[in-house]
DNA sequence: CAGCATCCCCGCAGATACTG
DNA sequence: CAGTATCTGCGGGGATGCTG
């Protein structure tokens, strides 16, 4: 069993794990998606996304910037204006992310139904 | 700006957020991927994935089961044998996940390069 | 407006030991 | 072998206040 090769994505210390851990964050995908239509300001993202704190947003943006997925543009104005936009590299991640949203749109209800249907066994799973 | 509609995926309290938060977990995608080729035992997953603790694996499996993405099969044998497999619903998530791995395979190096290139500004981002 | 620093708490996740 | 229970720590992440 396990037809996975040693260099197979995802398992063990393969390159794909990097990406997963990059995406496997509450906000990463959401932020990237928020930038998918062009440059957006910090404050706009806050409202657009909804539910994210300034701290988490900045943190996420910094990480994405460090990973080369987005670019930061600070304009020397008052009041300050800072825009973020996808890099070409970052833009390539939008498609995969969009697939996730498509999946959600299609199967979201099914997941919710499963959740409602209640846990198979209340407790005591041994044996 | 923001050509996103109110019901648009990802932003605010849209359905896609459910999926993101489902996937936005260190192990969810990895476990699903591990099951993508057929039923796998608990212990096999541990070794296959590498780095996950029994506790986290069980926890992840339970959640996926609750969400209707995987199914649990416990065989009344000694020693006990338990297999997990994707449900049809869960199987539909493999494609999106695979896209992520494809992306990683293609762009993983670019991300690592960006990381090495160092942070744009060492410190003091204000202004 | 954007961002950093600080404080603080809750929960994730590892380690360990026990049961069926 | 599979799973649970308990303890513990570390860090994620919110709230707040200050700076440019």
For the structure shown, list the relevant keywords.
6 helices; Arc Repressor Mutant, subunit A; mainly alpha; DNA-binding; homodimer; three-stranded antiparallel sheet; 127 residues; HTH_HxlR (chains A, B); transcription regulation (chains A, B); DNA-binding (chains A, B)
From the 3D coordinates, which CATH architecture of chain A would you assign?
Orthogonal Bundle
Q: Which residue ranges of chain A are poorly predicted, with pLDDT under 50 across at least 5 consecutive positions?
A: none
Largest interface: A-B, 70 and 69 residues
Shape of chain A: globular
The biggest beta sheet of chain A is recorded as: 3 strands, antiparallel
GO molecular function (chains A, B): DNA binding
Protein name (chains A, B): Transcriptional regulator
Pfam family, one (chains A, B): HxlR
Domain HTH hxlR-type (chains A, B): 14-112
Describe this structure in words.
The structure is a homodimer of 127-residue chains. Chain A has 127 residues and is mostly helical. Chain A has a single domain, classed as Orthogonal Bundle (Arc Repressor Mutant, subunit A), CATH 1.10.10. Helix content of chain A is 50%, strand content 11%. The first copy, chain A, is built from six helices and three strands; from the N terminus they run ααβααββαα. The first copy, chain A, has helices spanning 15-23, 28-34, 42-49, 54-66, 88-91, 94-116; strands at 40-41, 70-75, 81-86. A three-stranded antiparallel β-sheet of chain A has the order 1-3-2. In chain A, strand 2 and strand 3 (81-86) form a beta hairpin. The longest helix of chain A is centred in the last third of the chain and has 23 residues, at 94-116. Chain A is globular, with a radius of gyration of 19 Å. The two termini of chain A are 23 Å apart. The model of chain A has no long low-confidence stretch (mean pLDDT 85). Chains A and B meet through helix 1, helix 2, helix 3 and helix 6 of A and helix 1, helix 2, helix 3 and helix 6 of B. The structure holds a DNA duplex (20 and 20 nucleotides).
């Amino acid at each position: 069993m396990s037809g996975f090769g040693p260099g197979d994505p995802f398992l063990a210390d393969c390159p794909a794990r990097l990406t997963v851990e990059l995406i496997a964050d509450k906000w990463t995908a959401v932020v990237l998606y928020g930038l998918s239509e062009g440059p957006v300001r910090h404050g706009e993202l806050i409202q657009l996304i909804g539910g994210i704190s300034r701290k988490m947003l900045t943190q996420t943006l910094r990480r994405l910037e460090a990973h080369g997925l987005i670019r930061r543009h600070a304009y020397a104005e008052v009041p300050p204006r800072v825009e973020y936009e996808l890099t070409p590299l970052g833009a390539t991640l939008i498609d995969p992310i969009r697939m996730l949203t498509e999946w959600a749109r299609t199967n979201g209800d099914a997941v919710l139904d499963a959740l409602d249907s209640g846990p198979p066994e209340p407790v005591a799973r041994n044996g």
